[in-house]
Design brief:
This protein has a single domain, classed as GIY-YIG endonuclease (3-Layer(aba) Sandwich), CATH 3.40.1440. The protein has four helices and three strands, in the order ββααβαα. The protein has a three-stranded antiparallel β-sheet, sandwiched between helices. Strand 1 and strand 2 form a beta hairpin. The two termini are about 20 Å apart.
């Protein structure tokens, strides 16, 4: 099982990624060890996630989400909102 996720950074920008361990990945992002982009924009919070069957599907979905405009990403987040306070 893999996950595609969207984080909201402290500066309100959105970051999209994929992982096999969502809780650990969020922790690593907030420790400043996951990506250069989020390291400079801490703290981050999880605002969206979806399950994928495998790594290839997760990477494909990540790419699709990254092609969306900010407005479209916000709509995706809003439509699938679940309290993700992990």
């Amino acid at each position: 099982m893999c996950y595609v996720y969207i984080l909201e950074c402290a500066d309100k920008t959105l970051y999209t990624g994929w992982t096999i361990d969502l809780i650990n990945r969020l922790k690593v992002h907030n420790e400043g060890k996951a990506s250069k982009y989020t390291r400079a924009r801490l703290p981050v919070k999880l605002v969206y996630s979806e399950e994928c069957d495998n790594k290839i599907d997760a990477q494909r979905r990540e790419w699709q989400i990254k092609q969306l405009s900010r407005k479209e990403k916000l709509k995706l987040i809003e439509m699938n909102y679940i309290d993700l306070n992990i």
